[in-house]
């Protein structure tokens, strides 16, 4: 029997079976067609807009109304879907923002297509909140659910990103939110010299930024995308944010890390990946603590987005 107990770690995570109730407000929610996909869900408060594409289980647009999309989109895959019965050997990188389980070392590459780009169901919970539900992954005995709440004013969005254990045994996982953004002028995260990494940040093996593409400016690590080679860095900063800046707009994602928790990837809960040409994007990534989830239970990781000029 599953109880209604909840474990809350600040703003960072909830291991729970109960629901989440958030305030309603003056936000428009409607079904739209987008880039060849029908029945997509648009949330807007007349300042910003967000579009979730259920056919591929991800957010494909976030930006100011009437202005450019901050999320990167693979135009070659616009309007297409993943056939889960005849999956290509190559990863179908649609772009946008999605959830993966972490650590990646457990599942290797490519990602499970059921979780990466399988279709979701979606329903409106209130005027400014929708819920999406992914399919069960037979490979990992997991499924994802997202509650997306757009602030009634301003640019903020709150996500409750849940992973369910659909198997018969306990499993240890982290919820990994991956936002692919249009190649920015710079992507930034806090420098943290008081943490685990002497330089104030972590460099992944064989993924160091190209010469001149990483700079320390004050208390920030600032990275630029290189057209010829990829790079990846991480951080254990207690400040818990990553931001990209492009054409006068700052896109920030954040969460509240738990200083007592264990995180994947040698302790990183913030990660930045830069991709070379021809797919010109950068990933801003937030990872929850590693949590043991009992059969039938779920763990939820709470994250926030906002824009500013």
Keywords:
single chain; 309 residues; mainly beta; Beta-galactosidase, Chain A, domain 5; twelve-stranded antiparallel sheet; seven-stranded antiparallel sheet; 4% helix; 46% strand; globular; disordered N terminus
Please provide a written account of the structure.
Strand 15 (214-217) and strand 16 form a beta hairpin. The strands form three sheets. Strands 1, 2, 8, 9, 10, 11, 13, 15, 16, 18, 19 and 23 form a twelve-stranded antiparallel sheet that branches. Strands 7, 12, 14, 17, 20, 21 and 22 form a seven-stranded antiparallel sheet that branches. The longest helix has 5 residues, at 113-117. The chain is 4% helix and 46% strand. The protein has a single domain, classed as Beta-galactosidase, Chain A, domain 5 (Distorted Sandwich). It contains three helices and 23 strands. The chain is mostly beta strands.
CATH architecture assignment name: Distorted Sandwich
Instruction: Please report which band the strand proportion falls in: under 5%, 5-15%, 15-25%, 25-35%, 35-45% or over 45%.
Output: over 45%
Q: Could you list the spans in which at least 5 consecutive residues all have pLDDT below 50? A: 1-12, 14-25
Binned, the helix content reads: under 10%
Secondary structure: number of strands: 23
The H/E string reads EEEEEEEHHEEEEEEEEEEEEHEEEE
Instruction: Determine the structural class based on helices, strands and strand pairing.
Output: mainly beta
What is the top-level CATH class? Mainly Beta
């Amino acid at each position: 029997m599953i109880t209604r107990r909840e474990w809350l770690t600040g703003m960072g995570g909830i291991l729970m079976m109960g629901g989440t109730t958030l305030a309603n407000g003056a936000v428009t929610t409607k079904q739209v067609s987008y880039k060849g996909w029908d029945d997509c869900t648009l949330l807007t408060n007349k300042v910003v807009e967000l579009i979730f594409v259920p056919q591929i289980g991800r957010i494909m647009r976030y930006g100011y109304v009437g202005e450019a999309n901050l999320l990167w989109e693979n135009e070659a895959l616009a309007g297409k879907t993943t056939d889960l019965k005849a999956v290509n050997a190559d990863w179908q990188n649609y772009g946008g923002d999605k959830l993966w389980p972490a650590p990646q070392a457990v599942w290797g590459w490519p990602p499970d297509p059921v979780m990466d780009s399988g279709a979701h169901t979606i329903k409106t919970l209130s005027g400014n909140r929708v819920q999406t539900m992914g399919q069960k992954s037979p490979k990992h005995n997991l499924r994802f659910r997202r509650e997306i709440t757009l602030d009634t004013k301003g640019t903020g969005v709150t996500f409750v990103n849940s992973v369910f254990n659909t198997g018969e045994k306990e499993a240890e996982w982290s919820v990994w939110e991956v936002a692919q953004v249009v190649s920015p002028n710079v992507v930034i995260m806090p420098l943290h010299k008081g943490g685990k990494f002497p330089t104030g940040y972590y460099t992944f093996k064989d993924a160091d930024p190209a010469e001149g593409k990483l700079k320390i400016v004050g208390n920030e690590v600032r990275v630029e995308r290189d057209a010829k080679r990829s790079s990846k860095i991480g951080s254990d900063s207690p400040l818990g944010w990553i931001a990209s800046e492009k054409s006068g707009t700052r896109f920030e994602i954040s969460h509240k890390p738990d200083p007592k928790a264990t995180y994947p990837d040698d302790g990183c809960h913030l990660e930045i990946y830069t991709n070379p040409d021809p797919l010109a994007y950068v990933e801003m990534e937030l990872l929850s603590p590693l949590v043991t989830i009992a059969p039938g239970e779920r763990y939820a990781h709470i994250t926030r987005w906002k824009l500013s000029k």
